[in-house]
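Quick one, tokens below. Sequence please?
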């Protein structure tokens, strides 16, 4: 099968690897989509060499189809899935309290562990989520970053009627703005990149650009 291997700062190699086989509790997935995250750009630049092995396979924003799944896992071949790209130990205090995402030995698929930039991928079935048929393949690949945005907005306790200024309208900023809007907040995004400004406006978002002083703007917008 094809795979993309990280070979050190600014170098990826596309090559072949044996198809992985699923271990206990794991499913074998046929990867259909992989997003490129800001974290992946940091990996490309060599900033995460202390975490990403040489020859490692990145990609944690994924959409896939199930090839094989463990009996009783709730998944079967052909199911469309996304993956929560977290590997936890199941033994430490955080895991035992149910906070597997805070595991003391937390590893991320696509960072420390093999990710989705390969034709076939094995992941624990407990980290998979069904994708409804109403959602297209491209949209499904956005679920992981959308989950990041949803978590951020929930932590910020944004509610209907709030005034929210999002600083930076990259993919995560744009998703945060849309989640805030969905909650009924008034949202404006501050962004300087003309391509992103066009994209944000295309999503129906209000944008302030280079010419605006965000602090003054917010003071006027919210009457202090
Ligand atoms: Zn990411
Ligand atoms: Zn743990």
């Amino acid at each position: 099968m094809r795979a993309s291997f990280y070979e050190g700062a600014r170098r990826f190699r596309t090559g072949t690897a044996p198809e992985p086989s699923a271990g206990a509790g794991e499913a074998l997935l046929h990867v259909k989509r992989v997003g490129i995250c800001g974290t992946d750009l940091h990996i490309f630049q060599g900033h995460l060499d202390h975490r990403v092995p040489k020859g490692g396979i990145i990609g944690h924003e994924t959409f896939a189809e199930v090839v094989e799944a463990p009996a009783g896992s709730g998944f079967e071949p052909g199911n469309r899935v996304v993956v929560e790209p977290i590997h936890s130990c199941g033994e430490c205090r955080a895991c035992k309290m149910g906070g597997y995402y805070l595991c003391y030995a937390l590893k991320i698929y696509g960072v420390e562990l093999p990710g989705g930039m390969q034709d076939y991928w094995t992941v624990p079935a407990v980290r998979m989520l069904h994708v409804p048929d109403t959602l297209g393949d491209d949209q499904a690949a956005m679920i992981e970053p959308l989950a990041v945005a949803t978590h951020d907005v929930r932590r910020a306790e944004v509610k209907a009627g709030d005034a929210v200024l999002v600083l930076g309208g990259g993919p995560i900023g744009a998703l945060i703005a849309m989640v805030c809007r969905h909650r009924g907040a008034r949202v404006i995004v501050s962004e300087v990149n003309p391509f992103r400004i066009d994209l944000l406006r295309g999503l129906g978002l209000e944008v302030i650009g280079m010419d605006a002083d965000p602090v003054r703007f917010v003071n006027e917008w919210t009457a202090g």
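Residues 145-221 form a domain with the Rossmann fold fold (CATH 3.40.50.720). The longest strand covers residues 26-35.
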